[in-house]
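In full, the data.
>
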Amino acid sequence: MRTLILALLVSAICCSLLVTREYTEYLKKTVSWEVVDYEDNVFRGWTTEDAKNFLGAVPMMSGMNLPYFEPTTPAPAALSWLGANCIHDVRNQGNCGSCWAFGLAGMLADRCCLSGTDQGWLSPQELVSCDKKSSGCSGGWPEVALQYVSEKKGLVPEACYPYKGINAVCPTKCADGKEWTASHVCACKEPKRCRGIEAMKGCLASGPIEVTFGVCNSFFSYKTGVYKCDCGGSYAGLHAVTAVGFGSDPECHWVVRNSWGASWGDKGYFKMACNQCGMDGTYEQGNVFCEKVV
């Protein structure tokens, strides 16, 4: 009963501010993962409404109907692409709901490098500005963005169209002077969906994938450990990120690159327990990847 009362009190305290000292101390006493100190929380001062506007994966149906990946071999106990030179650095989407664009651009750039051609970071800003079926900084959906990438035969590199973090007009020429259409690289071949734990492990066997999950307010206070959905009734929205591996110690979990900068979480990464927050495919059109990138 005392725990329930405390949870209700904390919920009331946190209804306007996303992070408070009281909420931080409450989480430290109740969750299994490590909570960042209040003073070090990059979301200190944000309101819950700020958070809702910041999360950019929107609940919509695209009608693209990608085929599902079907695993054919058992997955190992653990796999991580973090040791590969092809996994690009952690970026920061800024105050723009462009996570859907970062998750897809990151997945495509990593897989392009793994296929033999490292083009560096590809441009999430192209998706924000040019994918007219999505809503730029107001959000988008991975499968819809993947359709854009497939039609355009990839994305342009960052040097062609650097990230602005705003809704800008789609350019017709590159910032580095190169021709816009010809600058598209890393064409997506065989786009597919991933749904279910074993299928996701199979998808990750060939490289990173983009995944979508429901964000609890507690997620903004994550530091390290295997995160679980400790919502306490406070649900902020949907978020798209790039999964780069999985493990089983101390339990089944995903290894994920976020787009909130390297000062958040575990140097910009986090671990999410399996069967948590819908990441295993509840938002099935949000778990996508290109099985081949050329």
